Amino acid sequence: MEEQVLLDTTAADLDLQNAVAERLWSLDTVRVTKPLLEVKVSGGQATVSGAVSTRVIQEQIADALSDLPNVTINLVNDDELEYAAAYAVATDSRTRQIKPGYRLVSHNGLVQLLGKFSPEESAAAAEVIRGVKGVRGAKVS
Question: For labeling, which of 1, 55, 62, 107 is most exposed (least CB within 10 Å)?
Fold first, then answer.
């Protein structure tokens, strides 16, 4: 009968979690902008996900973590989210009738649509924006 050995990855996971956190907090841009990042570590694999304000910060994070083993980075930036949300509002059948003249802004994945909307348009736009990958929340006002 073979003996089964279970590896305790808890210590390795904690080491990886600490290494990722240390690298992230070593970046001035992360400390200053405080992006909404989530770091999940399990079985020796780490995933960093969330939204950052600019592509530059996104690239800095990728560079800072590039030499750590088994780290997957799933980040979006506000410029990408603004474009994707605006495209969704302009093309979705529930919202494409909304007239131009609104303003759409994103900050760390929280998207806000500013303008004059009927209650139905507001509800539909919020739903459409929340459906955009990477959006952490939507507000229509």
Answer: 1
Rounded Cα distance between 74 and 60, Å, is 13
What is the span of the domain harbouring residue 18?
Answer: 10-75
Indicate the residue among 46, 75, 104 that finishes a domain.
75
The domain boundary residue, chosen from 40, 75, 110? 75
Helix (H, G, I), strand (E, B) or coil at 56: helix
Distance CA 138, CA 48 (A): 22
Q: What is the pTM for the complete model shown?
A: 0.78
Backbone phi and psi for residue 60, each to the nearest 5 degrees, phi listed first: -60, -40
Q: What is the pLDDT of residues 32-77, one digit of tens each?
A: 999 989 999 999 999 999 999 999 999 999 999 999 989 999 999 9
